[in-house]
Amino acid sequence: MGAWIALSMLIVAGLALVLRHDAGTVAGLDAIDFAAITASLALLIYLGFPLLRRYSGRYAAAVRDLAIWAGFALVLVALYSFRQELAIVADRVAGELLPPGTQLNVSDIVEGERAVRIRKRSDGHFIARAQINNTDIMMIVDTGASTVVLRQEDARRLGIDLSALRYSVPVQTANGTSYAAHVRLPTISIGPVGVRQVEALIAKPGALHQSLLGMSFLSRLRSYEFSGNFLTLRS
Prior knowledge:
single chain; 235 residues; alpha+beta; Cathepsin D, subunit A, domain 1; 7-stranded mixed beta sheet; 4-stranded antiparallel beta sheet; elongated
């Protein structure tokens, strides 16, 4: 019985769309709205009739099950409403549980903003896994370095012709003054955060133990923030 009533209502909804879509309203409603409401009622009737037969004479059980499903629906609506806030909490929890040095993409807080969070390692350094020329390079985040500085080994992995470099730029290292070669890197990306055409230096062999992610990259971000054991980069 319910199926026939639902089918009849769907036919009425279809006729309203076909015959009245350019002819004003149906029962005071726009033809599309009328069809949508009629189709929704047809679905409720189609699903409701079997439920009525199932709960015939069992009103307490019907009320109980209805309350349970309504509760589930409210929880789902609440989770969807607070999805952005929950994503932020999930990012923070994951950041605490993941090992030091892990990079974690941060959910967008501002539309169009991209961010990544890096956890400090046990040695006190923030190590970023940078992608340059589709190659992963591990780099120490160093706000004291005026530019990005690459080790010879990392520059070789990037396909840079080391034999053509001129080491003419003076740089200060822990061992005193050294010289480096100037290059321009097409892109540097840390997770979703990227910068194009980055000024960089290639250090002489043995001058660096690890490549440095300096201010020629960091200063071009929207912001970078140190907070406890975490560094957040935003672009």
